[in-house]
Design brief:
The protein has one helix at about 330-349, and strands at about 1-5, 10, 15-20, 25-30, 40-45, 45, 50-55, 60, 70-75, 80-90, 100, 110-115, 125-130, 135, 140, 150, 160-170, 175-180, 195-200, 205-210, 225-235, 240-245, 250, 260-270, 280-285, 295-300, 305-310. It is mainly beta and about 350 residues long. InterPro entries: FN3_dom, FN3_IL27B_N, FN3_sf, Hematopoietin_rcpt_L_F3_CS, Ig-like_dom, Ig-like_dom_sf, Ig-like_fold, Ig_sub.
Length: about 350
Amino acid sequence: SVNLGSSLCVVMTVARNQYERMGSDVTMQCGSLDNDASVSWKVNGTDVKAQHRLEGPRLILTQVNLGHNGLYSCFQNPHGERRDTIILHIGIPPREPTVTCRSNTYPKGFYCSWHQLYSTYIPTTFEVDVQHNQRSLEVQKDSVHKNRCHVRFPEVFSSFPYKVNVTAVNALGKASTTITFEESTIVKPDPPERVTATPIRFNPRRLEVSWHSPATWPDIDNFPLKYFLRYRPLIRDQWQHVELSDSTSHTITDAYAGKEYIIQVAAKDTEIGTWSDWSVAVHATPWIEDPLPIASTTEDSSTLLTETKTSPIPSSNAPQKAEPPVGRAAKLLTFFSPLLLGMLLLLMW
């Protein structure tokens, strides 16, 4: 109690938390009142409507679920003095967390992440322990991802395995998972960055693809990466693949002319580990030749003008039927044939 002035006394009640398992029957005790005390209960300021029963200073709820969460207060009869306040939290104990570890910054270190397959509905924390060569390693929590931690490699090319234990803990119980791995098995770079695909002028079947190694890979000179390129036209589902050593560019030479392509690249340490995820997809279309200009003529009463027009599609007019060629001698014979016939008739006379 807090004494305010000389005559006013106010009773301050601090709410306490009570955690209970979903589906169970829950008993809430009104402070330290005797078993024969008579009390009434309210939840969130209203009468308790859920299925329940009263046993002296106790409130018993049956088969609780998330709907029973709330602020419960008990009052002693007959004057209605508040004797206790309880915040009820319904949840479930944690199950074994799923744990994965990966090194995308080899050889600097690795990170481990974990998650619960099912929600516990109440606050759950995780304890992480990493062992290597019979000693515990320092674990640094991630500043962004709450379910992730970082560990530095104590040495490179170690033959000793790493053991990671993650324990999930809440007010209703705990559960743990332990995984063991070799250093080389968890190396997996991030995908290549800034992938570009450019058409090559006058080459309708080529695309020039280039990319950068992931910025998170710390020592590309001493720990080089190799790359895997895949590409396909949008009209087909089947990918074509090219594996490259440490080059960060490649020329596609078998593209379909005029077809849009989708292109992705993955990376891997040249000796250990697994391939990265695919890079963000880029789209590109090989070089397309500009349509040839089409010449057309127009004639007015005084001059003959020639115009040049560019058309995106060929003309649909059918070609005119050509006349058979006629030789110069045949033309002369056709012209003089009536004259020769007349001279022949005069000679016959």
